[in-house]
Specification:
The protein has 13 helices and no strands. It is mainly α. The chain folds into 2 domains: 45 residues, no CATH class; 205 residues, MetI-like fold (Orthogonal Bundle).
Length: 282
């Protein structure tokens, strides 16, 4: 080994090992997040908690209180209905669009991709207010249909951007072979492409569910008393006029966290970050 190589070897070995402060920052961040989550969970189960590291006693009455006082059961049903409807609409519209972007080259394709990214990059409130005004003029404000429509707007480009790389990685020769055997375009799409892209479809659907459950601004602008999702109901429970037990609000927050985390973990089960890299053709 040359003298220069010997000098570089310790530096390379040191560069491969993360510095201690990286682990320290990660540990501090994890401790802060765990502290916040555990405090909410413990408070939702606390009968009383006046100082000390742990509550004075434990009970589940605050969850029953949230069901009766805040209509948690009805809110969960509305949240599931909105989530499933938005997911179905976004997949029905987004999958064909993603296939076209993956297989076709046409003038202005870059502009189309830029237009798809905009609803995900700009703050939702910037286009949410005009969109909500339009829905109220169409007598859809405060309705379940209005909530579904307003959530489809950011969900559709999300599906397209996730599914385009999945379609790009499927060999086009499989489609040509199916057409040679007499299959028409709808049959090729349904019986050849979709089964191969099923992990991406499942991941996109689950991520849309998570996004819909978490989307506050657009849902808040158009939802009514009978069409609000869990995140909007949680906001009203915390900030509306009146005095409410903090334990019952934390109980709703725990339900919200568990639902979102379960869907996110299910989505990560099917998705691979490598498959989300879009190919750039020149």
């Amino acid at each position: 080994m040359s003298l220069a190589a010997r000098r570089r070897a310790p530096l390379a070995a040191a560069g491969e090992r993360p510095a201690w402060w990286v682990y320290a920052l990660v540990a501090v961040f994890a401790a802060l997040v765990a502290g916040v989550v555990l405090s909410v969970v413990f408070n939702s189960l606390a009968s009383t908690w006046f100082g000390g590291w742990l509550p004075d006693g434990y009970t589940t009455k605050w969850y029953r209180f949230a069901v009766s006082e805040f209509g948690l059961g009805f809110v969960l049903v509305v949240t599931i209905e909105v989530g499933l409807a938005v997911t179905a609409a976004a997949l029905a519209l987004g999958l064909p669009a993603a296939y076209v972007l993956a297989r076709r080259q046409f003038p202005g394709k870059g502009l189309v991709l830029m237009a798809l990214v905009l609803p995900m990059m700009v703050p939702p409130i910037t286009y949410g207010i005009p969109l909500a005004a339009m829905l109220y003029r169409a007598y859809l404000g405060g309705s379940l249909a209005g909530v579904i429509i307003v959530n489809v707007v950011p969900a559709l480009p999300f599906v397209v951007l996730i599914m385009t790389p999945f379609f790009e990685q499927i060999d086009p020769n499989l489609e040509r072979a199916a057409r040679t055997l007499g299959a028409r375009a709808p049959a090729v799409f349904a019986r050849v492409l979709l089964p191969l892209a099923l992990p991406g479809v499942l991941a996109a659907g689950l991520l849309i569910l998570v996004r819909t459950i978490a989307l506050f601004e657009l849902t808040f602008l158009v939802s009514g008393a009978r069409s609000q999702t869990l995140v909007v109901a949680l906001y009203y429970a915390a900030f509306a006029a009146g005095i409410r037990p903090s334990q019952s609000i934390d109980a709703m927050a725990v339900v919200y966290m568990v639902m979102s985390l379960a869907l996110l973990l299910a989505a990560l089960r099917f998705i691979n970050p490598v498959n989300m890299v879009m190919r750039v053709r020149r």
